[in-house]
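Dear H.,

Thanks for agreeing to be a second pair of eyes. The structure we're designing against is below in token form, covering all 679 positions.
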């Protein structure tokens, strides 16, 4: 049988283009890989190379909706479930939930699939505080990001901390994505706020560049995720995943089960469980017992590679082993790598003493402060001793709210009740004959040698004042933004606190920006409260340091039966010394109980008594009302009295001084009023 050539040619299998075949297989493989990454990103965590990573933060003024927006982003990416009963997921501290503010920057990793490219990205979000006292947290968080969302309340507009946080991000060279929040509120005015953004920050406010969202309802929030991927650049200047391991330690906290938990940003190399790494700061080598990402809780991953951010368990048992800004590297590296520059130490502006309620609790308090400063590196700690209160600490803070939050965290998280002394700032003193003074340091006012006074106990005694050339106090430039109708009240407030007006700018038809030069000591206690009360809460305030200036300062001492109580002393300007001395004597009388001896309360200024109050003696017998019966009744009353005395501190002349005495002087007498009402 013959078969024609034509028939054979028809039966041939047609030849396929090998390039087209390879392209189809590659596309199919790529699609399968992408689907696998999307389905289980943790198992394919090594696939998230730097081009798939976006590190960003949210900055805004306090109460503009940062934490609420973070919740919506976590819900949209499936990181958390939608639970209306558990708002503000990233506000993990008890003090944050009670006060409704963010005081600690929190990190959360999300996996997001872009709707147009179907490519899955790893988004590392840092939720930052909005209050000026926690600006150190903001600056440290921004150093780990490549971009930031500038969140502005569409009903409130630009406020003081909005301006401060923007310029922090601008100085870091970050990509800024403006977002208007709360656009669903009846009082919102997006067009007006856009004009403010354009005029103040010179940002592009075109409709495609500024997003309009409502974090509470979720309106417009999905567009934020797409904008983050498209506008914020991926991490750059990194090493390869195959090179030696190197990472920056940018946050730590203490866990009672695993010890110190470290949060790191990997610069180069790959880290897996069981590997060993070395600290550049301590030269100690640790084994990695666990690693992973904050999702938003600790979620283990197979590894961490260049460009990724995650946590480590290294078995650190002492808080002194962890140094914020430290560099971790591989001990098998050919040479020790150049360390990261680290973070600029926070400069404390407010100082206060902290003492345990009972001298036997000092070791417990020391351990609590060590663990808490591990999580809050901006607190400066040094030991000091008071004649009235015994051993304690001199703590440096970034503001009075920072101080109050730290005290509350000590009590709630570590069950350590403390006595705080009145806050003060750091003063400078120059002398005529420097040879008679020990401890002078260069670099003071106008380059002079000065003695730093961070504690009233360090203030020159009356006999030494003849050798004093001058006192110098720290100044700040305060930025106030308020509606036009409250300008008069603000000017009066700043004037009464020795403020000097520097700038007056009309932002728009309803709001004004004021700049005042103020003594830092004047804004420590009730300035912020008066600011809010005089403007019905509409004014905002931010400040920055601007050096020192000469001042006429004096020391106000409180005396009980002629003996000074060093823990109640303070440094004030001479013009306000007499009114403050008289007021403090009255407050102290209100909070002190009558005791078995007469108590004479006096206030002296540079050794001269200017005010006096007297508390008459009282004989108190807790068993006087008993007329017989079981001995246990008497013992019960004596034990109750003993427990009450434990809360008191024995000071000069055996006089019992309650904790409320210190709180009264700090909080403006509120505690005193409460105590007096209880009697």
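And this is the sequence the design step returned. I haven't edited it by hand at all.
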């Amino acid at each position: 049988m013959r078969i024609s050539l034509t028939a054979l040619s028809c039966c041939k299998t047609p030849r396929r283009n090998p390039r087209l075949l390879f392209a189809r297989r590659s596309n199919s493989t790529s699609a399968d890989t992408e689907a696998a990454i999307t389905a289980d990103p943790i198992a394919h965590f090594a696939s998230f190379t730097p081009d798939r990573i976006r590190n960003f933060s949210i900055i805004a003024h306090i109460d503009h909706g940062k934490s609420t927006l973070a919740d919506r982003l976590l819900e949209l990416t499936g990181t958390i479930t939608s639970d209306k009963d558990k708002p503000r997921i990233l506000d993990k501290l008890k003090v944050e939930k009670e006060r409704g503010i963010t005081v600690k920057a929190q990190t959360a990793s999300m996996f997001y699939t872009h709707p147009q490219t179907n490519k899955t990205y790893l988004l590392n979000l840092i939720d930052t505080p909005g209050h000026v006292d926690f600006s150190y947290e903001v600056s440290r968080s921004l150093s780990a990001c490549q971009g930031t969302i500038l969140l502005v309340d569409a009903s409130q507009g630009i406020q003081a901390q909005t301006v401060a946080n923007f310029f922090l991000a601008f100085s870091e060279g970050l990509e800024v994505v403006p977002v208007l929040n709360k656009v669903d509120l009846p009082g919102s005015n997006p067009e007006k706020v856009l004009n403010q953004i354009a005029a103040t920050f010179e940002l592009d406010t075109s409709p495609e560049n500024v997003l309009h969202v409502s974090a509470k309802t979720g309106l417009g929030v999905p567009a934020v995720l797409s904008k983050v991927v498209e506008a914020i650049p991926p991490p750059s200047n990194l090493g390869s995943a195959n090179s030696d391991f190197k990472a920056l330690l940018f946050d730590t906290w203490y866990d009672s089960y695993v010890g110190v938990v470290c949060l790191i940003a990997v610069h180069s190399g790959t880290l897996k469980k069981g590997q060993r790494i070395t600290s550049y700061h301590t030269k100690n080598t640790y084994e990695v017992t666990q690693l992973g990402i904050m999702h938003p809780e600790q979620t283990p991953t197979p590894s961490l590679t260049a460009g990724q951010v995650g946590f480590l368990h290294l078995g650190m048992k002492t808080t002194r082993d962890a140094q914020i800004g430290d560099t971790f590297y591989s001990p098998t590296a050919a040479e020790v790598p150049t360390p990261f520059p680290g973070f600029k130490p926070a400069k404390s502006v407010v100082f206060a003493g902290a003492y345990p309620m009972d001298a036997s609790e000092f070791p417990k308090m020391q351990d609590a402060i060590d663990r808490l400063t591990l999580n809050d590196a901006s607190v400066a700690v040094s030991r000091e001793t008071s004649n009235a209160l015994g051993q304690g600490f001199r703590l440096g803070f970034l503001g009075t709210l920072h101080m109050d939050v730290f005290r509350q965290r000590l009590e709630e998280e570590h069950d350590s009740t403390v006595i705080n002394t009145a806050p003060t700032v750091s003063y400078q003193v120059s002398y005529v004959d420097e040879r008679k003074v020990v401890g002078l340091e260069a670099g003071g006012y106008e380059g002079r040698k000065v003695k730093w006074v961070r504690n009233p106990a360090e203030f020159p005694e009356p006999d030494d004042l003849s050798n004093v050339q001058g006192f110098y106090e720290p100044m700040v430039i305060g930025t106030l933004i308020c509606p036009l109708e409250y300008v008069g009240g603000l000017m009066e407030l700043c004037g009464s606190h020795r403020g000097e007006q520097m700038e007056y700018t009309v932002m728009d038809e309803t709001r004004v920006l004021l700049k005042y030069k103020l003594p830092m000591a004047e804004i420590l206690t009730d300035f912020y409260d008066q600011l809010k009360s005089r403007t019905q809460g509409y004014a905002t305030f931010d400040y920055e340091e601007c050096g020192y200036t000469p001042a006429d300062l004096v020391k106000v001492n409180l005396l009980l039966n002629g003996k000074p109580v060093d823990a109640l002393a303070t440094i004030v300007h001479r013009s306000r010394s007499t009114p403050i001395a008289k007021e403090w004597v009255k407050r102290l009388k209100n909070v002190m109980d009558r005791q078995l001896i007469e108590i004479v309360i006096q206030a002296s200024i540079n050794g001269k008594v200017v005010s006096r109050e007297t508390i008459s003696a009282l004989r108190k017998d807790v068993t006087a009302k008993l007329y017989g019966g079981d001995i246990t009744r008497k013992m019960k009353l004596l034990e109750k009295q003993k427990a009450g005395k434990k809360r008191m501190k024995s000071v000069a002349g055996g006089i019992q001084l309650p904790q409320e005495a210190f709180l009264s002087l700090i909080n403006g007498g509120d505690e005193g009023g409460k105590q007096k009402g209880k009697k």
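Two observations from my side: The radius of gyration is 31 Å. The longest strand covers residues 468-483.

Warmly,
E.
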